[in-house]
Amino acid sequence: LEEKLAIIDLFLDELRDDLKSGKTGDLRRKAGDLRATIRNELSDSRSHKKGIKTNSKSLDEPLKLEIGELYYVPQLDKNARLLSAPDAKGRVQIASGNLKMQVEAAELSKALLEKNSKQSSHVSYRSATKGFSPELKLIGMRYEEAEIALSQFLDQASLTSIKELRIVHGKGNGILRKMVQSHLRKDRRVQSFKEAPFGQGDAGVTLCSLK
Prior knowledge:
By secondary structure, this protein is α+β, with helices and mostly antiparallel strands. The protein has helices at residues 2-21, 24-59, 117-131, 143-158, 175-186, and strands spanning 70-73, 78-82, 91-96, 99-104, 109-110, 135-137, 164-168, 190-195, 205-210. The strands form two sheets. The protein has a five-stranded antiparallel β-sheet, covered by helices on one side. Strand 6, helix 4 and strand 7 form a beta-alpha-beta unit.
């Protein structure tokens, strides 16, 4: 750009000299050359901008969302776990720790890698394996509390070598049981699930197998 501006300045200097010396013929010719130069530069600039717009558009491909995976949420400025598919309004449910909220699916992007992720992953694996229990008790919890607890339970289980899990939700009116089974059905880490056999909890317990 600086090089192009220097050429235009040179044209202007020559025009001033011609104007002082009365060379009107050269003045008209150089004025025409200057107009053509500026026109060409503007055309090149527009073409370049269009090219940039096209390239950026191709980069903004829709992100494939998977329930149970981590995604970066700008509103929170951190990663959160996806709990639901987009609804009719394009909103999804996410959870980060004890916080649970709805955000626009279009706002989500790939999860940010944490610093020293390799070391953190190793520490998380050891701590999860050491204190993890394959049984989760949801009885007495509210719906939202139970759903967050279940999500965290599956997160911890995925860090261990344990594949068989037991989720105690009770019988009651069946709301927690339906929530648990709906969540497991959507989580790609789950291989299968079923109600416990008679005498081992039956309809009040869901047994889950991880992949």
